[in-house]
Amino acid sequence: xxxxxxxxxxxIKTRGQQVTLRxxxxxxxxxxxxYQQVLGQGPQFIFQYYEKxxxxxxxxxxRFSARxxxxxxxxxxxNALLLxxxxxxxxxxxxxxxxxxxxxxxxxxxx
Amino acid sequence: ELKVExxxxxxxxxxxxxxxxxxxYSTTSDRLYWYRQDPGKSLESLFVLLSxxxxxxxxxxxxxLDTKARLSTLHITAAVHDLSATYFCAVVLVQGNxxxxxxxxxxxxxxxxx
Lengths: 111, 114
Hints:
The structure holds 2 protein chains of 2 kinds.
Chain A: E1 5-7, E2 10-13, E3 19-24, E4 31-37, E5 44-50, E6 53-57, E7 64-68, E8 74-78, E9 87-94, E10 101-102, E11 106-110
Parallel strand pairs in A: 2-11
Antiparallel strand pairs in A: 1-3, 3-8, 4-5, 4-9, 5-6, 7-8, 9-10, 9-11
Chain B: E1 4-7, E2 10-14, E3 19-25, E4 32-37, E5 43-49, E6 55-58, E7 61-66, E8 71-76, E9 85-95, E10 99-104, E11 108-113
Parallel strand pairs in B: 2-11
Antiparallel strand pairs in B: 1-3, 3-8, 4-5, 4-9, 6-7, 7-8, 9-10, 9-11
């Protein structure tokens, strides 16, 4: 079975630009969560979606937004990029109330 | 606000030695996870601990949970170089209906030296 997939793998953007990251969950998983991991730190929760509705939000500015599609895939959008947005962005899928399965991540570099 | 602490943050140990990593959290939670992360890679699930007194073992790693003390330990027995990685604990925080997020500790960077 395919695991969680994310695209792109790596991305380089300039300050002020916008970026969209994509995630496909494991088949049958209806919940998708997004995490930001800055180098040398633990992952920080950004959003959780279940059945296409936002179920949780971390302490991130409104520049960060996300959505979940009818096929349960998800996109994370970040507007007006800052240097501090450079990080590994992890997507995790799960059944409700169960273990999280993390994808390989998207490495975003903002210059 | 749920806070998760780990110590030590950095650990350098020799092969064959034993050591314990500690994870403390500030509020009640019903689940705790341990993950391993290799440089530049994603998170690999090691253990999920579901109840007070839970103990799980896999190879040279053993994890335990004391929900009353809000403490989990990850014990390493007879370390080998392949265990070199960063280890994270994560505590589940419930938010509303169907909302659950993981609050991660800062990680313990383990280096096992020959």
